[in-house]
Prior knowledge:
Two copies of one chain form a homodimer. The first copy, chain A, has helices spanning 8-28, 37-50, 81-93, 106-110, 114-133, 138-151, 167-178, 191-202, 241-250, 265-272, 305-313, 320-323; strands at residues 64-67, 136-137, 182-190, 209-221, 224-235, 256-259, 279-284, 316-319. Chain A is an alpha/beta fold and 337 residues long. In chain A, strands 2-5-4-3-1-6-7-8 form an eight-stranded mixed β-sheet, sandwiched between helices. In chain A, β7, α11 and β8 form a beta-alpha-beta unit. The first copy, chain A, is globular and about 80 Å long.
Amino acid sequence: MYAHRTPPTLRWILTLLLCLPLLAQAAEVLPSWNDGPSRQAIVKFVEAVSTEGGKDYVKPAERIAVFDNDGTLWSEQPLYFQVLFALAEVKRMAPQHPEWKEQMPFKAVLENDQKALEAAGMRGLLEIVMATHTNMSTEAFTDNARRWLASATHPRSHKPYTEMVYQPMLELLGYLREHGFKTYIVSGGEVAFMRAFAEEVYGIPPEQVIGTTFATRFQDDEGALSIQRLPKLTHNDDGAGKPESIDAIIGRRPILAFGNSDGDLQMLQWTTAGEGLRFAGLVHHTDGEREWAYDRQSKVGRLDKALDEATEKGWTVVDMAKEWKRIYPFEQQAGNN
Amino acid sequence: MYAHRTPPTLRWILTLLLCLPLLAQAAEVLPSWNDGPSRQAIVKFVEAVSTEGGKDYVKPAERIAVFDNDGTLWSEQPLYFQVLFALAEVKRMAPQHPEWKEQMPFKAVLENDQKALEAAGMRGLLEIVMATHTNMSTEAFTDNARRWLASATHPRSHKPYTEMVYQPMLELLGYLREHGFKTYIVSGGEVAFMRAFAEEVYGIPPEQVIGTTFATRFQDDEGALSIQRLPKLTHNDDGAGKPESIDAIIGRRPILAFGNSDGDLQMLQWTTAGEGLRFAGLVHHTDGEREWAYDRQSKVGRLDKALDEATEKGWTVVDMAKEWKRIYPFEQQAGNN
Lengths: 337, 337
């Protein structure tokens, strides 16, 4: 018997060689996710729906995946980045609007008067968004958004906002697309603002970005054509507005949805209420060190009812602190797994 | 010399053999189109934008093609098929609405009183459309549309409406997709009605169908979720409404557009006003024998201003009678080329 035994060192090498392909494969899939419950649930779901002949197989055309943006694909603290853009635009546009010096809420923005700005509330904020997002063509607005995105930096990380995206979610988007999914953004953000960077940053083309919308008007100025943005909200893509826009624009029910706040609850409900295997995920902001820690009491991205329903229904809740090796692409690859 | 000449019969055979691959290729592309100006313009455009390294090359992501539906992809006479559906639905739904017996415009429909129906005008028609298209879920409406499409037949051809589609346009849709185009419907038709058959008939998935829309409401009846359609128009996808919906939903400008009426003019203008090579096409209904012949004076699908502008700008105007070998898939393949 002894003579037939492979020497221990050689055994180790053989074992390693046999395992290498498996290790390589494992390393390719969602590398910034620890091998925790969320990663396992995702891989299990994706394999189930994309394995031909399997009982949960879904044909590629129906593999629709929808993602919230703020707090799900990129950070949303200390304020939604689009709001920071609107505030910066007020300052940039101020020379063309001398009246703003004495006119609230613009006066508060120009004087950095946070208290006055808060007092202006949602109504004041909407006024700021209207003034900086409408009464111009879609093309002109897109140029404005891109200019800001190319130069502005986040107050804490000092990185461009387009780098404040979640590396694990970028990997998830790619992993889904590799498995035949069509990935969509369905977000409360204004649609043209998100389209200004979604293709480059997330690989999501403009026609797969759904968001809050303003009325528009096709304008013909003696042959110079444009789409003008009007200061009138036509769709608020939050809460019940999400399944409504999914039905209106996609026209079929997603099989996977990911969000991070109560504003995503109806989208998750609508997705999981369809027949067959479905996936609902929530990014839970638990990492006060590398990102931010907030949920039930937060003004931005409150996660309360949806967290209860996720627990009750067994949806996947991603514990950012525990399950993500890396938060942002600019972080050095961590080795805590 | 004589000894070296190939015998005439053999020469013919050799020539034929050499030409076979060319013939086969030519036969594959748009076989129901005569080799006229329209087919040539289409092939020239598609080859120019899809030839890598060429000066007119357009990357696949930007190869967006938009098509009107009524009169462009399927017939629209004697009335828009969706209107025929709405009229049929009034009769089907009448038992649940005893009040309609005495109530215009429903009374006119139930009594086949065409004169009274015409007198009710656009307002009456809209009332009929609302009554048959809203106050139900998208799912229920889709079922109704599919039931009608599966059983109703056209008054003249006695064929199902989904067979009254243009064979040459089906080939064009396929040809574009083979060349990396994403094909969209952008039509005045109601979006859910078109989605009920667009994927099966045109190979165009629901998310690439854009049309006229009603307001909707996400409804939660003790856990039973639905999208309810409300009797309120939110977008009329005709005329200027077409570039507006293209901007809102696709978020980039098409490089090819096809229509057949003045309601498509702004979509063609918007498409061709973009930079680089663009294609604008109009289906001209010139075939009173195999289809219908109408343009400037027609109530349905009037083509007047757009015909002038097409002539002026050199857009492609398809002369249906001269350029299409076949109109409908159910016709026997014609041999007139």
